[in-house]
Amino acid sequence: MPEESFSTTQNWRLIHKLCFRFFFIYFLLHIAPWTWLDGIIPGIDYVTGYYRSFIIWLVKNCNQLFFHFANSTVENNGSGDTSFNWEEVFTYLIIAFAGMIVWSIIDRKRTDYMKASYWLNTFLRYFIIMMCMSYGINKLFALQMPFPNNSQLATPLGDFLPMRLSWMFIGYSAPYEIFSGAMEVLAGLLLLNRKTITLGLFTATAVFINIMVLNFCYDIPVKIFSAHLVIYCIYLLSTDAKRLFHFFVLNKPVEANTIYQFKFSKKWMRITSTVLKLSFLIIFVIVSFFTTKSYADSLKNSASIEPIQPGLYDVTVYVVNKDTIPAFISDTLRWRDIAFEKNGTGSVGSTDTSFRQRYRRGYFSFSTDTTRLFLGMKTKGDTNFLYSFHYYMPDNNTLYLQGKKGNDSLYMQLNRSKRHFQLAEKQFHWISEANR
Fold first, then answer.
1. Displacement of CA 212 from its chain's centroid (Å)
2. Among 99, 201, 382, 413, which residue's CB has the most CB atoms within a 10 Å radius?
3. What DSSP designation does 336 have?
4. At what angle do helices 83-106 and 14-31 cross, to 10 degrees?
5. What is the value of pTM for the model shown?
6. Residue 131 to residue 133: CA distance in whole angstroms
7. DSSP strands (E only) in 247-358
């Protein structure tokens, strides 16, 4: 849109101006672009640190006054749907509503917000592109949802939570994950070009609605964030609602979308705009793609931690303090099996609380020393080994472990499990004579 068009009085309706003011404040608060500069501009983290402290103080006080969430934690534990996250959303809604009222009183004579709307739309568009590329490129290399590992294959289906089930459902099929990532990347690329923004928004909306529904239906703790991505897309589509309604519903001819056709009047502005867009393209598309590709290649080429070969091993002999513990089904503390993964992690089929328990298995990381024939196990975040063993491997299918945990002596004989997991076969049939 030519710059002079912004100075043309549009005479927005009151409801239009109120909605713009509300969403302008809310979107900026929720995305908080100024916090992205941490680590980029020296000293900026000092300022943003005060901002975060203020937001935490404000959210907690609003919770005490209005929301009354019982468990309010700011800790970043991987969930985006904590009590604090919900309190934050409600606090921003209150601020946006109050800000809308104050803004409307102070700026009541303004007839439109064409320029401000352009900048808000552009900012939201590039934020959506960032998310499309960030998640999409990871999926292109099947990294976000990996194929089920040995520990997961050895876990009964009924022990999994819905989120982990959905992760394995997608991770099982690399082509499906790549397809879903390609759709996200396609949406991002379409949004980069002004002529294809509308198509890009429709594509992104469809992609993010599917993700949002998946998060809600499988209890994946990214509900707030995925819902906001859908809201951003719908908001951008709503700014072009009249034209889209005439085209899709009334079947009338419409003019081209000119909302994003802003022309800068000065040369330095045009140069800066071009440089910023090229920088964005290089950083978030090209560099991100090749960095992710390099990481994916390193995972494929990584060797297993010698001499332990990845796989599931049955604990056929389990001796504690010279007492042999039989393998009773009712005994949940005895180690039934050990799964070793290629990346130096694994799990024990036991409810031994010494390990980090997930889905009725104890998870650990391990390392070996082939010179001393040493194998050590520790839990995530620990520096000291929880279990220390001397090992002996007469062949690739047998492993003997002898060591101590605290004052208890342990001796185990492990044999590679003969269990066959059909899920690991990655079956595909063009012709299926029966319903399997």
1. 12
2. 201
3. -
4. 140
5. 0.89
6. 5
7. 311-320, 323-324, 337-340, 345-348, 356-358
